[in-house]
Amino acid sequence: MCAIRRKADTQIHKSVVIYRPMTPEQVLLTRKSFAELTRHEHVAALVFYRRLFEMDPSLRPLFTTDIEEQAQKLLDMLGILIAMLERPLGLEMELRAMGARHLDYGVKDEHYATVGGALLHMLAEVLGSKFTAETKAAWLALYQAVQTTMKAGAHEAGRSSDVSAAPESRH
Q: What's the whole-model pTM score?
């Protein structure tokens, strides 16, 4: 997997994604800590959502499904991300699509920082002493790539929906 930086190409208004690979040690730490997390998956997901809604109660209405179902979706998606770490192009496509879907759910750019904070809180609480500084750095690298790529997908979807809606708004 890779950490990602966006670089604007002002002539054609596209974002170019530049990959900085996670180190093999970061990939290993992320995988090991996720394996440990899945041993406590029910508690972990509930800790995540409790913290997320404490940090920003206005996010609660964005979640229309049962919190137990949402908790399973969170852990399933984390598992997919971890499984795709060595397939950065496939992972990028998945994250861009996920960013576009989350735009439809009402997610805004500023929500990503809150989600990242809740994720780190969950990892620290559930993993305890196993959540070392190195493990935290690995998850930060992963989450930075996730949020950057999802935001890019949301922005692209927002631009394309603005373009497609433009003719109708003229009437």
A: 0.81
